[in-house]
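== Sequence, structure tokens ==
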Amino acid sequence: MIKLLAVDIDGTLLNSKHIITDKTIEALEYATNKGVHVVLSTGRPVQGIYDIYDQLGLNTPAITYNGAIVLEHKEGPIIYECSLLPEDTKAIIDQGNLLDTTIAIWYKSKLYTNKLNDLAYEYSNISNVPPKLYENLNEICENGATKVLYYDTTLTITNLLQSLKGVFSNDVTFQTSRPYFLEFVNKRVSKATALTKLEKHYGISSNQIMSIGDGFNDLAMLNYSGIGVAMGNAPKEIKDQADFVTADCNHDGVAEAIYKYI
């Protein structure tokens, strides 16, 4: 019996127009009324989920920054937090500057960037946090960022996935959340690790969890859950490892999965 539903946001809960359809909202309400804890699991920062939690009327835990911060409720307190090591933060930022890519750095819930360009402002609109041009990285590098992200063309990010292998320490993991986002976190961070914290919080086991996602940052979560559902718009590699492939985000794939398994 499913007791917790972990749902990714972008490309999963939201359709390509960045809205949640009425059908999906009704399905989530159905799951909640069945006693299922609906948890949003995202690469977004804390501030990037407030409106969605309010729209859905949720007061459940939130998995943010790909699992680097897990909140008991949308506004806290923090259940789990794990940042990049200081030396890794500096190495990732230095490498990004060498590549002349747009860098987004999350530190103490603030967004810093190396360029105030169109990409920085587009990313800011997603996260609902204004970007600040960093001038002195000493404090961030001395303490470690929550997450660092490269924003570039899909082709560039695809190439970086291969060329950056072995460049950083073994304490760093990186993967795409969208084809044009390359996200760096501490290797101990994943949406799956975040789910282990929520298991203890609710007193449940992994086979009582269903998760739904579309990105490579969702893969660990899908594999860990009792039922892992890939969206129809997910890459083939993710679909191949899922227990079920639902409809895409423009055809209420989340709702289809909920009514199938809950």
